[in-house]
Amino acid sequence: MTRQDSHRPRTRGEPLSPTELDREAEEVTLAVMAASRLLIAISARALASTDDSLTLPQLRALVVLGTCGPVKLAALAATLGVNPSTALRMVERLESVGLIDRKTNPANRREVVLSLTPAGGALVERVLVHRRTEIRALVQQLPAAARAGLVPALKAFTDAADEMAVDPLDEMRRVGGLIDDPLNPRPPDAPQGGRRRSKDTAT
């Protein structure tokens, strides 16, 4: 397509040229990255309003434990994408402030099993509620047409990333990191490797 053709009015239904497709993809990429930065900032504000001594990686560890726990230390490290020594330092910090409970696996004394304390679970809940409230307030500011278009666009985006996305519970099953809690055993019909969890969780 010549430079002159690139500025001519588009006929309804006419496909985009390769150059226009590249430009459109770049615009969408930049918009998604900006939205991602916004969501990270919202998460940081939600955490700071609840406990400004914790970091976002530490919050993510707590959310993973809230979704999947009790789990092995090595499995937590794999799910967070860090090495075990880094995960251990994080766990020691969270344990010192009473947010994580660390015990030896009774089935294998060489393994460490982690779970949230009641205080850890309450903190995660407060942060997620604060984050959802702030996101909801932003969404409510959008015009109705923009809100209506946002839902299918975001669903299409997450569907396209399905194979790349990592669900903490699925990742824990993959690495064999789920441990049954003796005080809350897995129901007979629950998936192998861990007890059932509510679907209303976030990462």
Query: pLDDT below 50 for ≥5 consecutive residues: which ranges?
Result: 1-6, 179-203
Radius of gyration: 22 Å
DSSP strand tally: 3
Q: Give me the side-by-side strand order of the main sheet.
A: 1-3-2
Name the overall outline: elongated
Give the helix/strand class: mainly alpha
Average per-residue pLDDT, rounded, comes to 77
**Would you list the SSEs in sequence order as H and E?**
HHHEHHEEHHH
- Report the helical percentage: 55-70%
Distance between the termini: 45 Å
The number of helical runs is 8
Biggest β-sheet description = 3 strands, antiparallel
Give the percentage of residues in beta strands: 5-15%
Could you explain how this protein is built, in words?
The protein is mainly alpha-helical. Helix content is 59%, strand content 8%. It is built from eight helices and three strands; from the N terminus they run αααβααββααα. Strands 1-3-2 form a three-stranded antiparallel β-sheet. β2 and β3 form a beta hairpin. α2 (18-50) packs across α6. The N and C termini lie far apart (45 Å).
